[in-house]
Design goal:
The chain is α+β, with helices and mostly antiparallel strands and about 475 residues long. It folds into three domains: about 210 residues, Aldehyde Oxidoreductase, domain 3; about 170 residues, Aldehyde oxidase/xanthine dehydrogenase, molybdopterin binding domain (Aldehyde Oxidoreductase, domain 4, 2-Layer Sandwich), CATH 3.30.365; about 40 residues. The chain is built from 13 helices and 15 strands. Strand 13 and strand 14 form a beta hairpin. Helix 5 packs across helix 6 and helix 8 runs parallel beside helix 9. The longest helix is centred in the C-terminal third of the chain and has 21 residues. The N and C termini lie far apart (about 65 Å). The relative contact order is 0.14. The model has no long low-confidence stretch (mean pLDDT about 95).
């Protein structure tokens, strides 16, 4: 085997000694003299217009330095998704807005000498809302007469991905190879089912936190728990309308991310407070805020129709995905595309169709989450694999061994679908999936358990027959 310097070797972690000694390595281990503490007032309504907001009582509270609303901040649309530029997500977010779109959306920011004072001041802000009709079912989001969640004229999509906010559509995609109709006619078995993937939250031990301040060169420093420091700098520069070179992002050790911190959630808000006050500002999510206003895995409704021959060959696959992005379009295109592009090529089939649609709802916002769209697709196709295998009388593992892509093979789907755009030609240069299936099946004692399950099921069916069920 080739000898490597790092691969296959034990190496010392750069931050290992600091972690073992309990030295300050995380964002909140950092303190600056004169640091202020920020808290966010959040919407109690899923969809509403702020008709009136009165901050005078909050400003009179001793220790409160400033209260900011939509009237005080630049109105520049941006995306919170930490992705390459030009972003394949809509610019549909503002630092603060007159309209709120989900329970937990940002209404105002309080900056105070102590965190408890900022918390108290939130209760002194008087807000009058005009509550609007809301949409919670993604199936109804683009129906005629559905409430329009993003009716602001500034929202737009940098890439041409069929953005249609008047119908609550973030993106829509269709892609097909081969002849689907012919494929289903050639099938011995056709199964069609619907699978639903629910909300889930990353729950990193360290919640979202950011500290902003000016350094000795008068640069705005953003010390933040993030997975995407360069995206933070670029997006904050846009949101605040300041040059990128005036911003420095410090990414210390993060206490868990899993995709949740591939998002710019607090950085531009905290940075704005520092620009206005001239002082260091700290903004930390509570666990409640993390669940309410952080990011989630995108819920999806996946319809699969699959045709197979008796020998296990797949003759046709149709995948239709409806994805709920929540109130904002963060990662709304790329996760959807990945559900097809990271799942369909795994299974060899000449006739494939993928249709995907991402819609807005007045629910929590989806974002990057481990697996990034592929998780939802594999969940659905994994169940379908069991159903197809049973229908043709084949062991699921034998069926998977037959249909999965192998070393040296490619797939037209690689070229057909990418991440938020068309893909590129690809070939598999290494594949350990056959060994994984063998090793995994031995470890879980698959063969014995399957035989035992089939025996028990047959006995139950015989018993029902004898009893006349």
């Amino acid at each position: 085997m080739k000898e490597f310097k790092v691969v296959g070797k034990s190496v010392k972690r750069v931050d290992g000694i600091s972690l073992v000694k309990g030295k300050p390595v995380y964002v909140d281990d950092f303190y600056l003299p004169g640091m202020l503490y920020a808290k966010v007032l959040r919407s109690p309504h899923a969809h509403a217009i702020i008709k009136r907001i009165d901050t005078r009582k909050a400003l009179k509270l001793k220790g409160v330095v400033a209260v900011f609303t939509y009237k005080d901040v630049p109105r520049i649309p941006f995306t919170t998704a930490g992705q390459g530029s030009p972003e394949p997500s809509p610019y549909d977010t503002f630092i603060l807005d007159k309209k709120v779109r989900f329970v937990g959306d940002r209404v105002a920011l309080v900056v105070a000498e102590r965190e408890d004072i900022a918390e108290e001041a939130l209760n002194l802000i008087d807000v009058e809302y005009e509550v609007l009709p809301a949409v919670f079912d993604p199936r109804k989001a683009d129906e005629k007469g559905a409430p329009v969640i993003h009716d602001e004229k500034e929202a737009y999509m940098p890439l041409p991905l069929n953005y249609n906010p008047k119908k609550n559509i973030v993106t829509y995609v269709e892609a097909e190879v081969g002849n689907l109709e012919r494929g289903f006619k050639e099938a011995d078995v056709v199964i069609e089912n619907e699978y639903e993937c629910h909300y889930s939250n990353h729950v990193p031990i360290e919640t979202h936190i950011v500290i902003t301040y000016f350094d000795e060169r008068d640069r705005l420093v953003i010390r933040t728990s993030t997975q995407v420091p360069f995206h933070v700098r670029r997006i904050v520069a846009r949101a605040l309308n300041i040059p990128v070179k005036k911003i420095r992002v410090v990414k210390p050790r993060i206490g868990g991310g899993f995709g949740a911190k591939q998002e710019i959630l607090n950085e531009e808000l905290c940075a704005f407070a520092t620009l206005k006050t001239g002082r260091p500002v700290r903004l930390l999510y509570t666990r409640r805020e993390e669940f309410m206003s952080g990011r989630t895995r995108h819920p999806q409704i996946i319809k699969l129709k699959v045709g197979a021959k008796k020998d296990g060959t797949l003759s046709a696959v149709s995948m239709n995905v409806l994805m709920n992005t929540g109130a904002y379009g963060s990662h709304g295109a790329t996760v959807l595309f990945n559900t097809g592009s990271k799942v369909l090529p795994l299974y060899k089939c000449e006739n494939v169709r993928f249709v995907g649609k991402t819609v807005y709802t007045n629910l929590p916002v989806g974002g990057a989450y481990r697996g990034y769209g592929a998780t939802q697709g594999h969940f659905a196709f994994g169940i379908m694999a069991d159903e197809i295998a049973e229908a043709i009388g084949m062991d699921t593992l034998e069926f998977l061994k037959k249909v999965h892509i192998k070393e040296g093979e490619g797939s037209p789907i690689f070229r057909m679908l990418g991440e938020g755009k068309e893909g590129v030609e690809q070939k598999i240069t290494s594949c350990g999936l056959p060994q994984c299936i063998e090793l995994g099946s031995k470890e879980i004692d698959w063969k014995r358990k399957r035989e035992e399950y089939l025996r028990e099921r047959n006995n139950k069916e015989d018993s029902r027959g004898e009893l006349g069920w």
